[in-house]
Amino acid sequence: MNSLTAARFTIKNLDCASCASKIENALQRVEGVDEVSLNFSTLTLSLKAKNLARVIDEVRRIEPDVILVPHNVQDRTSKSMESDTESNTMREFMILVGAGLLFGIQFFFEDALHRITIPYAEMVIVVAAYLAAGWNVFLGAFRTIRRGDFFDENVLMVIATGGAMAIHAYSEAVGVMIFYKVGELLQELAVKRSRRSISSLLASRPDIANLQTATGLKQVKPEEVQIGDIVLVKPGDKVPLDGEVVSGESMLDTSALTGEPTPRTGRVGTAVMAGMINLTAALTIRVTKIFSESSIAKIMDLVENASARKATTEKFITAFARWYTPIVVAIAAAIAVVPPLFVTGADLNTWVYRALVLLVISCPCALVVSIPLGYFGGIGRASRMGILVKGSNFIDALAAVKTVVFDKTGTLTQGNFEVQQVVTQNGIGETQLLKYAAAAEIQSSHPIGKSILKEVEKRKLKSDNSSVTEHMAIPGRGVRAMVDGREVLVGNDALLHHQNIAHDICELNGTVAHVAVDGLYAGYILIGDTLKPEASKAISDLRLYGVEKVVMLTGDNQCAAESVAKHLGMDAFHAGLLPEDKVRLLEEIKAGTNHGGKIAFVGDGINDAPVIARADVGVAMGALGSDAAIETADVVLMTDSPLKMAIAVKVAKETRKIVWQNIVMALSVKGLFIVLGAFGVASMWEAVFADMGVALAATANATRALGAGRPAS
After folding, report:
1. What is the DSSP string of 603-640?
2. Which of 61, 346, 409, 552 counts the most CB atoms within 10 A of its CB?
3. How far apart are alpha carbons 209 and 89 in whole angstroms?
4. Which residues pair with 489 in a beta bridge?
């Protein structure tokens, strides 16, 4: 049994959104295809299949002109593809100019042509203009009919204009074909402009790396550099791979990753990420990750593949488009046939003409193009601001968020703990208490443990770490270690109760690390943390954007949690929680929610992974370079600012608003002209202007999602 192969292709010669939808639907029915997503906005096809050759053959059967270029050779072909596209567009334009001139002669000199004695002079001009304007429409219709599909936009346009020719409405037949092609050309240009805007979001990809070798600097592709190699980054160059600065000091522009305009300082020992721009001085960097695992590679992958997770609205429109056109065609057929048969005095030509008007407006291109383009624009805009949304389904989910649950430490607070007070009991001195606590925390990566180690270092106290013979983390409570043969416990109040350690104080106004030695309470270390300066604005902005309830879950003590919650105006908070408690409380919050909205949880993406995974929208914050955060969350905020959560909600709401504007506009206009056409009020001229006009307007409106009104920052 063949295993599944993941592949991604860039698509060439695909200029029809409904054709893209048909290819995707057909591939979903191919045996051995597990996943498939065709993104017309970026002209990329992503899939998992057992037999890629069979998939390529199926695409060629549906659209013979379409060429699939493997994504790994896209860079070598993109320029030639762009050149070919520009050449095709110019050729189409020149042909339309010629057809337009012939049409003008027929339209303005119709009476004179009737008086000319040359046989069929008018018909020659009409047919020449008609064929020149619609040659590729006829070709597309022939291919569509050959594969047994009769509801393609090309087929419908040929039937509509051919019918007009048959009832001697020559001017309208030729004019409609010309204006249809002009509209298609303008729509194609609008979509190309959107693609260029989207591509600019991904332009942060480094192209070269200056690799240090035994013979000097060598320019290579970032993919060729290995872990441990040394690269030189000159001023103005992009950092090619994730690494650590080994020499030099410079300012770094991180906006491509974080959306933040303020540069950061890179100096010896500083971690740097691929995609940052070196501004002021040369840096020498030791590579710590291969390019495919770098931050910028993961960001590009997330943005490019976000369309694979379609929103409910997109899925509905795709299904709607499959039914809409056949239904309108059936209505048109009924209008053409029923009145002349059953209504006395009904003229066949009149009712056939009305039916042809309906065929002109039966193509759902305005929806098929603009809806995915709107979502992709919103995702691209968010990524430009340092917010990674992993799919258009999460745009919808963010827009529907009514409850936001925050972790505290490192999310709403700085997470930069400092020892503020040391209180001892039972004969243990302050210095000895700190030494015991530092020895127990020596292997800990928790911010509280780091703050204790930092205090010991600041006081220049000597601690013999070799005396630590055992070390065990107690999740959600603290640590246990054997130091100089004595059992040392360092942790929260829950740890003391769990170990039955007698103590006279449980709650303190701040973060506290209790210490016990050989089962005897030795005292506590009071540790301070400060709120992030933008935390308060983040909460107020969330409420401004429609969030009704803000809750905080923390493992910190009741007093510290209450102080933060009160300062920020939280609706509720829960303190002293273990990781499993957070999951349980999130379930309770969801069960008690009666507003029907979604619930988002914002945490650090590592310690809070279980609750992030359980929320309707899991958000990892401060995740620059954090692999675990990017893998776990639905939305990744690339800085440690909680304000990004409010911006994410606003971007999602604006994107969804634009999407629904297009849906309402397209359906309203098409519905109106179906009625007007059926009653003979709208002509074929008006129908084609309405059809292409709404497609152009919807496409232009969708591009607003890339930057409609910059959110508060």
Report:
1. E-SSTTHHHHHHSSEEEEES-TT-HHHHHH-SEEESSS
2. 552
3. 36
4. 480, 516
Q: 248 φ, ψ to 5°?
A: 100, 165
Q: Which two tokens stand for residue 349?
A: 């030509």
Residue 48's beta-bridge partner residues? 6, 35
Element (H, E) at 511: strand 511-517
Q: Cα separations (Å) of 675 from 167, 295, 311, 671, 687? A: 22, 53, 31, 6, 11
Distance of CA 450 to the CA centre of its chain: 36
What are the tokens at 657? 């608003």
Cβ atoms within 10 A of the Cβ of 28, count?
14
Q: What are the chain's domains?
A: 209-304 (2.70.150.10), 387-414+531-638 (3.40.50.1000), 418-528 (3.40.1110.10)
CA distances 648 to 386, 396, 428, 634, 654, Å, are 10, 11, 50, 12, 10
Tokens 């690799």, residue located: 211
Closest CA to 505 of 581, 559, 451, 452: 559
Whether the CB-CB separation of 604 and 407 falls below 8 Å is answered with yes
Distance from C-alpha of 525 to C-alpha of 104, rounded to nearest angstrom: 89
Is there a contact between 366 and 695 (Cβ–Cβ < 8 Å)?
yes
**Whole-number pLDDT of residue 528:** 78
User: What would the two tokens of residue 676 be?
Assistant: 């007007």
Rounded to 5 degrees, φ, ψ at 183 are: -60, -40
Distances (CA, A) of 235 to 297, 305, 501: 22, 32, 58
pTM of the model: 0.74
At 98, which helix (H) or strand (E)? Answer: helix 74-108
Quick check: 609 and 356 in contact, CB under 8 A?
no
Residue 127: the pLDDT is 86
In terms of residues, how long is the chain? Answer: 713
The residues annotated with a catalytic role in the active site are: 407
**In the chain, which residues have pLDDT < 50?**
1, 73-81, 709-713
Q: What is the pLDDT of residues 447-491, one digit of tens each?
A: 778 888 888 888 877 666 667 778 887 777 888 888 888 888 888
**85-105 residue pLDDT tens:** 566 667 777 887 888 888 787
